[in-house]
Amino acid sequence: MAILTIDIGGSSVKSAIYTGELADHKQFYSPENLVKMQENLDEMIMYYLKKYDITAIAFSVPGIANQETGRVDGVSSLRYIHDFDFIAYFKETYQRPIYFENDANSACKAEVHLGIAGDIKNALFMVIGTGVGGTIISNGQIQPGEHAYGGEFGMMLVDGRRELSELGSAVHMARKYSKLKGKEYTGEEVFALAEAGEVDAVTATEELYHYLALGIYNMQYTIDPEYIVLGGGITKKADLLDHLYRKLAEIMNYGQRCPIMPKIRIAKFGNDANLIGAALTAEGK
């Protein structure tokens, strides 16, 4: 069974064919409006339909995948994705079963069923991209919460006014640094400049590490998971955990009694986790 799996993110849209493993990856940058997004998705989907016998299309989406209405509820960095009948549009256009799941839940499913977290009963998943999303796992089950906002860690106000999705995102860090310098930089470029000792880049990355660690600290002492599993593009950075544990050590010496150092794992599948998890949703997992 060939499933076309698509991950809609705030910065880019990724796709692949899933037949037990991923193949034939494609990607485009997330456009600024719904019309262009639909056009780009339609072009992407037609590419696969011409090459493969697609039995279902599965999406990983920002926000809340409302399985009753078929719409994407909640909030995300792609505001327009919430403004149309998501499932109905693709069902009517392609006459195939359509599935969707929240992006963090998708990543969580991939790691629980096939990745690093199969042995964990109580965990938090943080997916760090344009924003910060997440999932709470308790006794091996996803806990969506009363209003399906469980795991929306990015909405945490980590400096009293600004959200973790802003202060804990390498994408937003790069935008802020680019504005300061009057030139466009990616997150990877800012990290490289920081490693080379460029003062403003060091300041920017240190702030990012601090707020990510602060968010992790707060979640550890609110939900008390066994592990916090990190996913998203930033996890490709080999020394990420070193920086986060360094900042956590500082935070835990602010004066509180903090007996538990959060245990952090890096997700096995990285940027592919959302694609795999969406496909697993189509398989009924």
From TrEMBL:
Coiled coil: none annotated. SUPFAM superfamilies: Actin-like ATPase domain. Pfam families: ROK. Gene3D superfamilies: 3.30.420.40. InterPro entries: ATPase_NBD, ROK. Belongs to the ROK (NagC/XylR) family. This is ROK family protein. It comes from Enterococcus aquimarinus.
